[in-house]
Design brief:
The chain has 143 residues and is α+β, with helices and mostly antiparallel strands. It contains five helices and four strands. Strands 1-2-3-4 form a four-stranded antiparallel β-sheet, with helices on one face. The termini are far apart. Bound molecules: zinc ion.
């Protein structure tokens, strides 16, 4: 199958090609460049993104936003949670946010709040303090 990857642009009727194209995300005057795979119009610059590409763009935006806002980014949230030895579901139950919260933070589809970010930072630096929270896995009883 060697199908030519073009289609007409819905905006201007120009030729759209399916390719990796220079793109950027911006937040509060800061921008970050990335390459995004999708349909790009060679005439007007319109793009049509789907699935994985759309998601990668959202994640890049959240990473930038996290940096500007001074909170943990998606991969840092995952690293902190793993340090605590918690599943995503368990982390949401113990630290707050609900069963799907950490899945969203780590996938880059939802920004972590400032308080959650700071709580994770403190706990990741001193994981044994997790035991002070209700619902946390208990360490073996000391005899
Ligand atoms: Zn166009």
């Amino acid at each position: 199958m060697s199908k030519l990857k073009t289609q007409p642009c819905p905006e201007c009727g120009g030729e759209m090609r399916y390719e990796k194209h220079a793109d950027e995300v911006s937040y509060q005057g800061h921008t970050r460049k990335l390459k995004t795979l999708g349909w790009w119009c060679s005439k007007c610059g319109e793009s049509i993104l789907e699935g994985a590409a759309l998601h990668a763009t959202e994640k890049a935006f959240l990473e930038l936003k996290a940096e500007i806002d001074g909170v943990l980014g998606p991969d840092e949230v995952a690293a902190a949670r793993e340090r605590l030895g918690l599943s995503q579901r368990r982390a949401g139950a113990i630290l707050g946010g609900g069963p799907r919260a950490f899945q969203k933070y780590e996938a880059g589809s939802q920004a972590v709040s400032v308080p959650m970010s700071r709580l994770l930072t403190l706990l990741a630096n001193d994981p044994k303090r997790l035991q002070e929270l209700p619902g946390a896995p208990k360490a073996a009883k000391r005899g």
